[in-house]
Each structure stands twice: as C-alpha cells, then as structure tokens.
User: Fold this.
Amino acid sequence: MNTILNLPGPKARAILERDHAVISPSYARAYPFVMDHGRGTDVWDVDGNHFLDFAAGIAVTSTGHSHPQVVKAIQQQAEAFIHISSDYYHEPWVTLGEKLNQIAPFEEQAVSFMTNSGTESVEAAIKLARYHTGASQFIGFLGAFHGRSMGSLSFTASKPHYHEGFYPLMNGVTHVPYPNPYRPILACRPGQDYGEAVVEYIEHQILGQTLPHREVAGILVETIQGEGGYIVPPPGFYPALRRLCDQYDILLIVDEVQSGMGRTGKWWAIEHFGVEPDIVCAGKGIASGMPLGAMIARKSVVTWPLGSHGNTYGGNPLACAAASNTIDLIEKQYLKNAAEMGDLALDILNEMMARHPSIGDVRGMGLMIGVEFVKAKDIAARHTKEPDADLRERVVYLAFERGLLTLGCGKNTIRISPPLSITRTELEEGLHIFEEAITLAEKGAQPHVSGNGH
Ligand SMILES: Cc1ncc(COP(=O)(O)O)c(C=O)c1O
Assistant:
C-alpha cells in the first residue's frame, strides 16, 4: 500500500487561496496539485510531496520535465535574444521549419506556420483551407476537441459547456459521428469496418443529402480523439476518408496536437494508418512545454499570399530552440521508448482489466492510452458498458493521494500519457498505484481530497 499524502498541504493551500482571488475561475483544475519542480517523470509539490506524472501537463512534457538539453537550449537562446517578432528572420525558426519538414507525414515538401498553442494551429488550418479552396464549409466530429478560440471552438464537440454562453460560433461546421469502435452509433453491414461505415455516412447522408461537396474546404479530425476519450479509430477509417477527400477535392486536416510529436511511437498517429494528410496541426509536446504550435501543410496547399496570416510571437526563438532539441531527443531515444513503454503499458493494463470488472476498455497507441470505466459488479456485467463517471473520478483522486498524477478524458475514461522518456520502473510503479486506486474505488472508497481546489 502506498502512503496517503495529506493534500493539499499548508503551502499549497495558501497558494490556492491567492489563486482564487486573481486567476480566472474558468480554468478547470483537475485537483489541487501545486507544482514546485519536476525532473523527467518526477514532480514535487510546494509541500515537498513527490508524484509520478502520468499526465505530462496534458501530454506536453514529451522529453520529461526540464530535460537538461532543452533547458540549456532555452538558456543559451535567452542569452542571445528572446524576441524579435515575425517581422524579421532568425535561424532557430528556420531550423525548426527544416526539422518539421523532415518529420512531416507526407512526401511533399512541408511548409510550417508557427503558432503559440494548439488552438492557434487549428485556426491557421481553418483559414488556410478556406483560402486555398475558396470553399467555406467543414466537416468535424462529435466528441472532438480542437481548442477554445472561436474557429476551433466551433469544431469542438466533446462537452456542451464549451459552447454554453458563447454563441454564435463560426458558421459552417457539420458534425458527424467519430468512429468509436467501443461505442458505435451507426449501423455497420456484416463484416464492414466501422470506420468505413462512418465515411459512407459522410458521403451518402451528408454530402449526398445536405452539404454540396464543392462548398466543403476540409475535414478536420483528431487522428486519435483525445479529450473526447482517447479513442482509436478502426483501421479502415483513414484510408476511406483519404479516398473521399481525393474524390471530392476536400482537404484532409489532421489535428495531431495531442497525438503527434512521437506520443504514439511514431512521429504522427496518422502514420499508423498509412495515409498522408494535407495539413497537420501540432502543439503540446512539440517544445517540451514551451508554448508553441505549428500548422504544417503540403507546400502546394500553402497558396496564401504575403500578409494574409501572421502573429507577433510566431517562431519565438526560445520556443523554437526548445522544439528543435525536443525533436532531436525524440528522434534519438524517445520515439522508440514511447513505442516500447506503450506496448508494456498496454500489456499491464490488459492484465489489470482481467482482474477489474470496472475496466470496460483499454485502448491506445504508444503512450496515448485510455482506460474506460463502466458500472459492473463482476466481469460478466461489463458488456453493458454503462459509463461510470463517479468511479473514474474517484480513481483519479485516490491515485493523486497516493502520488500519481492522471487526468480524465471523455465522461468516464482516464488517460495514461506520461512523458515519452518514462522508464520501465516508473511505468510499473505508476501503474501499481493506478491499480491500487482502482481496487479501492471498486470497494467504494472515497478519496480524502475533494474538489479541484476551488
Ligand atoms: C487535439 C487537440 N487540439 C487542440 C487543442 C488545443 O490546444 P491548446 O490548448 O494549446 O490551445 C488540444 C488541447 O487539449 C487538443 O487536445
């Protein structure tokens, strides 16, 4: 049994109080963890409590917390210059562009627009798709999360509270079901791949009945759905979607903000499906935690002229230096590690599933793994798939009290998304705490910590 930490400690409580006075209450804090410092997968709070970080700052600290090489690159760049703006040129920006060109998931040359966040990468993709095609309409997916600025928010469809109070949104997004193999909502013909069924629905019910294909600029899709529940589509989905896009001259835009940058054991999750997209949205893990994103597109698509899109901080030198070093580290060690540790985690979690009726589904690629919880007294009852949001929440908190940081996604899923640098020992230790939390939650245990600090 792991020691139960007394959380939040006195120093944490004092900071929570100050936070409440001056920071926007809209931030959805998971639980009252107040960071002091971190190294690799280890983090410490301000009261000296130690945790293993299986959330990586929402899948961001790809090389682990404060990797020495990344820290050094930021320090060196800061001493040279911190900012000059996108009105000028500098080498760290170009170097990053060259590296993104090397790892982009298509043959054609890649041209990148650097951003400061995931949502801004999505905004850039929306604008470029409209500009390039001259069309205004898009297809997005139920359960999607693409960000919270007006354009990306219009595609986001994972929870109604993201939209509540913010209408009108951007016009022109038609949502269709995401191909969730565990919870399909469309009928399939016998033997048909569910992903193909979804594409057939888009073709026949959407393009065939309401949305003229010539008006459609792009289809925006999270290659693996993140916030919506870490959902991996069936193998037939992307090949069929690519064929549809080719047939109707629609751009295939993949949002790899969460699934990209090596998280799934390949640079981009779309590579697992053997399909080349037209535009890739990147963010999160790209710079180990420095705020950076990129919209990476085939050169032939980037037809917008000088001045049509820009930003003050685009290509920020500190963020670019961090990103180039992040890419080097992932290439050298962590891509392979993410694939290996991901396989190990899936093996351990599948074994765990055999012992715990509340685990309805385990799925994922590399270190992007979802564990979905259902109401079931015994293994036989698991097939009802009734979501257990309360148990999921208790597992997150019980794990937190025992020194493990995890985050939920969807209604009743926990995401396992540690740094790509995680060691075998850390992975096993963290999953051990995870199982302890599940065992306790199944027995009805209530965490001592409650609420998110508010
Ligand atoms: C798939 C995906 N796209 C876009 C975003 C938005 O990124 P940001 O919060 O950096 O704006 C997120 C954030 O969680 C995401 O998971």
In short: The chain has two domains: 10-66+334-442, 84-315. Residues 58, 117-119, 122, 145-147, 222, 226-227, 255, 257-258, 283 surround pyridoxal-5'-phosphate (CB under 6 Å). The mean pLDDT is 97. Residues 6 and 401 are 7 Å apart (CA to CA).
